[in-house]
Design brief:
By secondary structure, the protein is mainly alpha-helical. The protein contains two helices and no strands. 6% of the residues are buried. It comes from Moorella thermoacetica (strain ATCC 39073 / JCM 9320).
Length: 72
């Protein structure tokens, strides 16, 4: 089943919201980590979350979809 334009926009908006929350959580984890063994994990998690968030925005921009109607 193929999604309509509105449903596709809503799906992308939700993915961006989730990616943003994941990125913010990774930022908090990085800021709070004190265990030296976890620093590398915190950096990896932070970079991966940021890249996912930026990738999703790039996909939306490349498709020319306007998400300004959604509360991001």
């Amino acid at each position: 089943m193929e999604l309509g334009p509105r449903e596709e926009l809503e799906k992308m908006a939700e993915a961006i919201r989730e990616a943003r929350e994941e990125w913010l959580a990774a930022q908090r984890f990085f800021a709070e980590v004190t265990e030296p063994d976890l620093v590398d994990q915190a950096i990896y998690r932070l970079e991966a979350a940021e890249r996912r968030y930026m990738y999703l925005w790039k996909v939306v921009r490349n498709r020319g979809q306007a998400l300004h109607n959604f509360d991001l």
